[in-house]
Amino acid sequence: MVSVHQEVILVIDVGTSFVKIGLFDKDANPLENHQIKFEHWMTIKSDGTYVFDAEESARIIERGIDELLSQTNNTFEIISVATDTMASTILALDKEGSPLTPVFTYADTRSYEHLSKLKKGVNQKKFYDETGCPMHTSYIPSRILWFNDKCPGLTSRVNIWTDFSNYLFRRWFKDSNIPISYSVASWTGMLDRKRLCWHDSALKFIGLDKNQLPSLDPYTKTIWGLNSEYAKRWSILSVVPFFLPVGDGASSNVGVGCNSGNKIALSIGTTGALRVLTDNLSVKIPQGLWAYRLGEQFSLLGGAFSEGGNVGLWLKRLMNIQVTTDNLTINQSDSELENALSRAKPDHHGLTVLPFLAGERSIGWAENATGTLSGIRLSTTQTDIYQAFLEAIAYRFGLVSKRLLTVLSGDCYVIASGGAIQSSKYWLQMLSDVLGIQVGVSNVTEDTGKGTAILALEALGIAKSINDFKFEISDIYEPDDKKMIIYQNAMNRQEELYSKIFT
To answer: pTM of the predicted model, to two decimals?
Structure first.
């Protein structure tokens, strides 16, 4: 009897908190028992440091691939490898391809002083329109200025600046001159989003030659030919095409079916984002938002936040909300907290919160932003504070939503995904009330991986379009008119506090 091998896509999803490696079938569904997840360790310091070690993380990812391949037992035929990656990472490599720096993430804020120099040296309005990115420490230009200032002895040894996913490919393949996709490049703040080339004036100002950056190609470009070390290690992948990595935010949109301008993706994992995928490549960017490219046909328009599930987790640990006893598990504790929140009236606590515990991105992009809690009293409880922070994060989504709706046409609705939001009915209803829009909950458990698999399947010609897939909705939340008014007043109070501190 001849065994039948199921054709699958191997997806590598490099997120901020976790890396996931898994197999997906030709319907872009994850194969149960063939998904590996492990934590992605970061070095975080009070001075704004937010980095990780490139070689250490690469080795961890490679061991994950080893483990997954060992599970296949020759029962699957891997027809391609597809990768997505966290946005706006950068590291410097020497001529041998070895890292000279750690990997700087979007959350590293140490370059805020150099950002001021950058803002004075370029036409900010023109730069914003051409790159789709506001001036901020989460993007690459100020980070390179910071490096050149702080590490002058290393500057002369830098052969190329690249992102972490590109570094992985340079480790794995014979040809070390691996390009990056327009998608990944657009998250750097240095891509001319209309001409799809590196932004000349940005490079000139920071003293960077385009030869010190990878070349650019669509994500559909395939890379072949693992070097001898990895061809021996992963023999099954030695004759398999690897697609260029894409930004994880774009993959997430595709993975929940938000592939047109009236479908808004709301994602809350470690951090949060509100995004639409549009074929209007020249769309005017509402102030405070960004526009990234996904290939040659689509732009990703929206706003992202440095806060999300990370804030909730920090609060729980700080206030010891989650307490384990012999009779109380973590999940039960979460359930009890959810029940307590569902009984609370909106904004009853009188607290005003700016939730910028990891700095601010959309919509104000204040590089000096920190978290603020106002209105606390002796009567304030732990649950009050927790509720106020969840509401505060929702208000940031509300501000982005208002701006998005100014450039979208027709009736819009929101599809929510992400581990921090999908399990909280309270937060989902609140977001619907704040946004004033119907919110559906994606039933997709691995939205980013699914989206990356879909893009690969379309590029392979197995799917005609990214819309040729099923996307299920588990629950739908409708906005409550009375709560909308309460939340709008609270949102106005938050904006007033913001203007007093950061403008």
So the answer is: 0.91
